[in-house]
Amino acid sequence: MPPADPHEKADRLLRDVGATVVAAGASAAASYAAYSYLNSQAAHARQIIPHRTDAAPNGDGVYFPDGSGPVPFHRGMEVDLHLAVYGDSTAAGLGVDTAEETPGVQIVRNLVRETDKVVRYSNKAIVGATSKGLAAQIDASLIARSRPDVAVILIGANDVTAVNRVHASANRLGEAVQQLVDVGTKVVVGTCPDLGVVTAIPQPLRWVIRQYSLRLAAAQRSAVRAHGGRAVPLADVLAKEFLARPEHMFSPDNYHPSAAGYALAASILMPEVLDAVGEWGGPLPSPPEVSEVAESRRLVNRIKRLVPSVPGR
After folding, report:
1. Mean pLDDT, consecutive 10-residue segments, the chain of 313 residues?
2. Is 194 a catalytic residue?
3. Of the residues 89, 122, 141, 169, which is catalytic?
4. Most buried of 37, 56, 144, 264 (most Cβ within 10 A)?
């Protein structure tokens, strides 16, 4: 076979380089178009979903087995258990009208009924908080010498919307869990919810946010367990109900849970809370690995249903 002409080799090289440049340019253009489109959807979603700066109803105090309470706590008051809640607006219970409807108070009411104990409840959650603010919430409790016996943490949604890095956010949560474990507190964490259930967020942005929130939830679970806490996968359990009955499970802002949504979250967290204080007395329920309803609504699975299968494959 005769050697290739040097001029021909040079021409072929130029063609290859040119094709690569064109392909790279097309890919960059497509990426920029997708980025711009998602940004426009995010701006639209921010207009639909209200930016809440109001405070959630305050249910702090001491609760008694006879159903009375909350009574304001004061130094020297005898209580059997102290339960504290840390985290973001969902931990605070934003979206409902009364303290009794918040997840923390629903948990403490159930805890009192199940254990027949006097329980002090403190909610330190802050509306708009991300994992970056958890350490300060816990510091405030410990500096005031009010170490809880059991703590519930709900955090993650704002880390997703702020596009905080997944592993950094999970590591901060793990450090917060360790902070509490080191002083003898039992810690139960409801990991990041599936934000793909928020239908006010348009597709495909909702699909992107769903993947991000599920990745964060998985990283949170690993970090919580590594630092001695108990992780409850809220995304896997709550998504089915929120997708099936959004008008019932969401508050009027279509973003935060309603009283029914918080009640469901509280019921899912309760077994771990009771087990943490030695009051469960049986095997803990195993939540599903993934919500079947949420999976059926994944973009890739919807496309598979639309594309007919090829015979023989």
Report:
1. 48 44 45 53 54 77 95 93 96 94 96 96 94 95 89 93 91 97 97 86 81 93 97 82 84 86 92 93 65 43 44 44
2. no
3. 89
4. 56
The CA distance from 210 to 180, in Å, is 29
The overall pTM is greater than 0.85: no
> Is 256 assigned a catalytic role?
yes
Q: Which of 227, 256, 258, 291 is catalytic?
A: 256
pLDDT at 295: 44
Exposure letters 247-263 (e unless 16+ CB within 10 A, then b): eebbbeebbbbbbbbbb
Is 275 an active-site residue? no
Q: Are 228 and 77 in contact (CB under 8 A)?
A: no
Q: Which of 149, 253, 267, 275 is catalytic?
A: 253
Contacts of residues 206-213 at CB distance under 8 Å and 24 or more positions apart, as own/partner, are 207/298, 207/299, 208/38, 209/160, 209/161, 210/294, 210/298, 212/160, 212/163, 212/166, 213/156, 213/157, 213/160
pLDDT at residue 230 in the model = 96
Query: Residue 304: its pLDDT value, please?
Result: 45
CB 56 within 8 A of CB 94: yes
